[in-house]
Structure formats: structure tokens, C-alpha cells
Input
Amino acid sequence: MTRTIYVDGKYLPYSQAGVHVEDRGFQFGDAVYEVCEIRSGAIIDERRHLERLERSLNELDMPMRMSHASFGRVIRETIRRNRVRNGFVYIQVSRGAAPRDFLFSGPNVGQTVVVLARALSRATNEAIALKGISVITTPEQRWARVDIKTVMLLASSIAKEKAKAVGAKEAWFVGDDGMVTEGASSNAWIVTMDGELITRPADGHILKGITRTVAMEVAENRGLKLVERAFTVDEAKKAREAFVTSASAGVLPVIQIDGTVIGNGAPGSTATELRQLFHTFAEATL
Ligand code: PMP
Output
């Protein structure tokens, strides 16, 4: 349950927290966001998430008006007020409210900053990871700047609904070239029969996930053979293992793709090891 939400300098009760109807985030999807895991009261990889937030803003010609330190203070206060020990914090910055106009180069309207924190059950997440999830594949229908973490998530939302309809938890987008780009809200990985760990390079067709970056460090530290390259759906179906990474779910094993069982149908040893070691490599700040 979220009790209090930070909106533009104020901590407001959930029911009273709102933004202007002409907020550009609402009318144009002109907003960026971040999600950080909260674990045992600590913020996971805060520095990297704030750096990526700044990059997203820069790519859209928006200044980062709050310093990283100020964001840190707001994040902590929001977590404290909502008494979240395990869960996530969501940060959103839009270009602000202005009379509807495609152009954003006019008078600077000021930004809308929202921070909310919500508790999630660690036990539930662990139970899901122990079982593994199913994914479906679906044509890539997002815009071409998926490297920017914007709130334009309609294609991802539709893809997730499509997955849910067949009992799957995630959808993998597949480009016209037959290559998997990434999940609707995660990065996609496979482990080949030769034991190679494969994930797509941050080539502009994926979001450069923070969990992906940390998982790559874990893999290198464990001496695993890591290859950054795109892979096809067929290759993934024949893989020894598959998994996804995201801040909210960590390293999450995939046991079925479009109904095809991966490996022996149980979470693979590589995914399981990366999941277990992830937090020893991630940065946790109180
Ligand atoms: N790709 C997409 C499209 C996402 O929405 C997410 C989750 N925010 C990720 C990848 C994973 O990124 P991260 O590990 O930073 O959460």
C-alpha cells in the first residue's frame, strides 16, 4: 500500500496526490522514469538509476533540475513515510504542464516530479523465481528510442496483456529481423547448450538495464563466457536456459517460451546462481 506520494515538493496523501490535466506526461507521454528495488530498507543501485534518469532527461532536452543528492533525500523520505522495507521506488519526471502544444521549445514550463514507494512481498517474488516464468513473443511495436526510459509504455502494456491471456508473465519483443530485442519490462538472456551467456548489446534496440549491467559483472566474476549479441526466438527455444533481468524482479528464470519448454523445464543453474549473487554485486545504500 502506498500512503504518501511526493509531488513537486509536497508529500501528499495517496488520494490527494495529482498532477495537472495538461501535464505533458499525460498528453504526450513526455516524461521519463526510473524504478529502483528497495531491499531490507536499502535502495539498490541508486547511483546508476539516477545517472540513467539524467541521461534520459538529457536525450529529451530536459535539464535535471534536482541534484542526485536532493533526489536521494526525497526517495528516502518517501520510503520512510510509506514504511517500505522491501519493494520499489518509482520516480517520474515530466516536462510539466503547459497549454497543449506539440512544441516544447517555448517558455520553459517547469517539470513535474513524482516519487512513490510501494512494498512488495519478497517471499512472493522468491516463490515466482523458484518456479520460473513463461514468456511469449510478440512483434516489436515500440518507438525507435527505447534506449530512453520514457513513460510511453502502451506497446509494452498491450504485450503484457497478451502474455497474461495465455498465463505468461512477460512478453519478448521480436524485431522484423527475427531477433529478440528485450522484454516488455526486462532484458532478455539465454544460456546456450555450450554454456555461453548471451544478451543483446545496448545497440539502441533495448533499454540498457541496470540489472543487466550488474548481472554482467557477476557473470564475468564467475568466469562465465559472456557474449553480447542478438539471438533469435528459435535459438532461445533451443537454449539450455533463459531468463530476464529487471530492477523489480532481479534475475528471473524463464522456463517456457511460446509454450516451448526450455531446458528441463525448471530454472537453470546459471540463472539461479546469478540471482543469488546479484545483491552481493549491486550497490545498496541506506
Ligand atoms: N527493458 C525494459 C523495456 C524495461 O522496462 C526494464 C525495466 N525498467 C528493463 C529493460 C530492465 O531495466 P532495469 O534492470 O534497469 O530495471
